[in-house]
C-alpha cells in the first residue's frame, strides 16, 4: 500500500482528505446521468491533465489500469451486440475517469488522514457498539487496496508473459487469489503486532 503513495509532495497533497473525497463523490454523481461522448472524453482528458500536473510518478501509475482492459473489451462487445457501441464507449470512458480520480486521491492521501476524514461519518455506529475508528480503518484500507490489487494482477500478468509470451487472462485467477489471501494475512499480522484495530475515537 505504501508503495502506491506518492512520497514526493505535490499540490494535491496539500488539499485535505475530506475535500478530496467530497470532490470525488460530487464528480461521480454529476457525470453519472450524462451519456455524451464528448463530455466523457473531455473528463478523461482533464483527469490525464491532473496526473500530468502531479509529475512522472503519478503518470506512471496509469499503467496500473491495464487489468481493466479485458473488462472494457467485454463491455464494448456487449454494447456492440446490443447495437449501441457509442454508449459502450461512454461507459468505458466514465469508468476510466472515475478509477483514475479515485487513484489520484489514494496516491496523495495518507492512511491516517483518510481515516480522520471518514470517521465522523461513522460516529452513529457507536450507538450500536461498533467502534467508528475500526470501521474507518477498514474503509481506508479497502480504498487503498484497490490500486494495489491492480498492481498485483499486472505483476502476475507480466511474469506469465515473460514465461510464455502471452497474456495470462483467466489462468491468473488462482495465483491472484492466493497472493491476495497472503497479503491479507500479512496485513492482519501487522495490525495485530501494533495492537489490533483501534477501538477508540483516536489513535
TrEMBL record:
Q: What is this protein called?
A: Cobalt transport protein
| CDD domains registered for this protein in UniProt | EcfT
Q: What organism does the record attribute this protein to?
A: Ancylobacter novellus (strain ATCC 8093 / DSM 506 / JCM 20403 / CCM 1077 / IAM 12100 / NBRC 12443 / NCIMB 10456)
Q: Where in the cell is it found?
A: Membrane
Per the record, GO CC terms?
Answer: plasma membrane
What family does the database annotate? Belongs to the CbiQ family.
| Transmembrane found in the keyword field | yes
Signal peptide boundaries: none
Pfam families, per this entry? CbiQ (PF02361)
Q: Any stretches that span the bilayer, and where are they? A: 21-52, 58-78, 85-105, 125-153
Q: Give the chief site where it resides.
A: membrane
Topology in the lipid bilayer? Multi-pass membrane protein
Which key words tag this protein in UniProt?
Membrane, Transmembrane, Transmembrane helix
Q: Does the keyword Membrane apply?
A: yes
